């Protein structure tokens, strides 16, 4: 029997959309009429998707991750707004030939997914929003300042900034951080191009602007939504998750205890079970 690829070994593919951008992407799992499109976090490339989550979802679904325009090995210049990132996401999905998708979105990816749904309300069947919040949500405009402070702290302590940004400072949080960061290094060949400072700055500027904009009317979406987070998210404060769940008329909410922004990575086994059940319902 042929060896099944994992997220650490699956090849990177490329597709050129109508907007002229060539997107880098990875797809894993059995072919499905409705795949899961994964929208990643701030300054993430293909190598920043958690292998345990991607492999877990691929047991029952086709899951596709991709680099935003100008990020990693995707072509073009960095998008300057969350709406532009959503337009790019739509172009990528259209290039793949899908008219209906499920979405799994984390952090910045959740902002993008909300704008995408506003642009094409019938495209998304089911949506998971993790570690994220609504447009204009509490503390979202503060993400740039927090990010730069934690990056400086990470520089002097010789760790990845996600160690501080995604996890709590408890012993449990520190252990989860180390395990998560180790998983991100499992892919040893054909790794993605590192994300540059220009991309980080462009995305942070877009997040700050989005955090100051007026809230969207999410009550118009009747799709099932799973909102999920840790109980101590410093990056996109946890109250935003409660707010999101109230704004969507057909939402479920789960909050992980003793977890931060990266709660789904800390509790990846439980998250995969919840996500599989949610998409199958």
Automatic annotation (TrEMBL):
It holds the Pfam family Abhydrolase_1. The keyword Hydrolase applies. SUPFAM superfamilies: alpha/beta-Hydrolases. InterPro entries: AB_hydrolase (IPR050471), AB_hydrolase_1 (IPR000073), AB_hydrolase_fold (IPR029058). Keywords: Hydrolase. GO terms for molecular function: hydrolase activity. The keyword Hydrolase applies. Residues 53-265 form the AB hydrolase-1 domain. This is Alpha/beta hydrolase fold protein.
